[in-house]
Structures are given as structure tokens and as C-alpha cells.
Amino acid sequence: MNVLVDTPVWSIFLRRQGRQLSPEQARIKAELAELIREGLVQIIGPIRQELLSGIREEAQYRTLRGRLRAFDDVLLMTADFEEAARASNYCRGRGISGSATDFLICAAANRRSWRVFTTDRDFFRYARHIALHLHTPRP
């Protein structure tokens, strides 16, 4: 099953070195490496944009952009945006707010029957209210 990888997981994988990782982060990094080897990793444009935003040095930006270009963006459709809005409205009606990007990730994954790999605790709250399957590192 394909896995849509969220920004915080990519950040651990791309920007952190071995000695700087907690045991949990090391597990996450190893799991993403395995998902890449298995050809299961998916990315959408808003995640790519988040990863590339805020990089001060042009050389670092180009390096990261080059590494991410190994992964094609999933083409988002009108239905993805509509589903994201529906999920956001539903969650807000239950007192749970989130960003437009978060709900777009949820919708894109749900519509394609993918899992979302994230460390963002908000997604665990969303999953209690909307159709969302989260990926956890395998043992």
C-alpha cells in the first residue's frame, strides 16, 4: 500500500544526522528509507513546498530540491480539495481544527486508499473522526 509522507517525517529523514536522532526518530528514518526502497512513497506539492520553504542558503535549497525531485508529485484533483474542505468542516463541527494542508493530505490519501506517515499528533485526532489510515514504523 502506498504511503503519503508528511513534512515532519521528511524533515527527520532529510535534515537530521544519526547522532542527532532520538531512538524514535531513528526508527522513523529507517522506516522511510525502507518505504523508498519498496517504491511506496508518495508526495504532494504542498508537502514539497513546506519542505523547501524557509531554507536560507541557496545551495542547501538546490540540494534538497534535487533530492526531492526523485519523487513525482501526485496530481491533485478538484475532488481532493472538495474532500479536504468537507473533512475540515466535519472536524471543526466537532471542535477539532487543522490547517488546509493537513486536510488536503487526509483527503488525498483517503481518496487513493493510502496511509499517511506523520509524526504530527493532529493527524491522530483527525483519524478519530474522518476516514484516515496512519502508517506506523514496522518492527
Give a short synopsis of this structure.
This protein folds into 2 domains: 3-68, no CATH class; 78-134, no CATH class. The protein is built from 7 helices and 4 strands; from the N terminus they run βααβααααβαβ. The chain has helices spanning 7-15, 23-37, 45-52, 58-68, 78-92, 100-111, 122-126; strands spanning 3-5, 41-42, 115-117, 133-134.
Notes on the structure:
- With 139 residues, this protein is an alpha/beta fold.
- The protein folds into two domains: 3-68, no CATH class; 78-134, no CATH class.
- 54% of the residues lie in helices and 7% in strands.
- It has seven helices and four strands, in the order E-H-H-E-H-H-H-H-E-H-E.
- Strands 2-1-3-4 form a four-stranded parallel sheet.
- Strand 3 (115-117), helix 7 (122-126) and strand 4 (133-134) form a beta-alpha-beta unit.
- The chain starts with a strand and ends in a 5-residue tail after the last strand.
- The mean pLDDT is 95.
For the structure shown, list the relevant keywords.
139 residues; alpha/beta; 2 domains; four-stranded parallel beta sheet; 7 helices; 4 strands; 54% helix
Please indicate the count of domains.
2
* Overall number of strands: 4
Pairing-aware structural class of the strands and helices? alpha/beta
Radius of gyration: 15 Å
Mean pLDDT: 95
Query: Can you tell me the residue ranges where pLDDT is under 50 for at least 5 consecutive residues?
Result: none
- Name the strands of the widest sheet in spatial order: 2-1-3-4
Query: Main β-sheet: number of strands, strand sense, barrel status?
Result: 4 strands, parallel
Beta-strand percentage? 5-15%
What is the helix tally?
7
N to C succession of SSEs:
EHHEHHHHEHE
Structural shape: globular
Distance between the termini: 17 Å
* Share of helix, binned: 40-55%
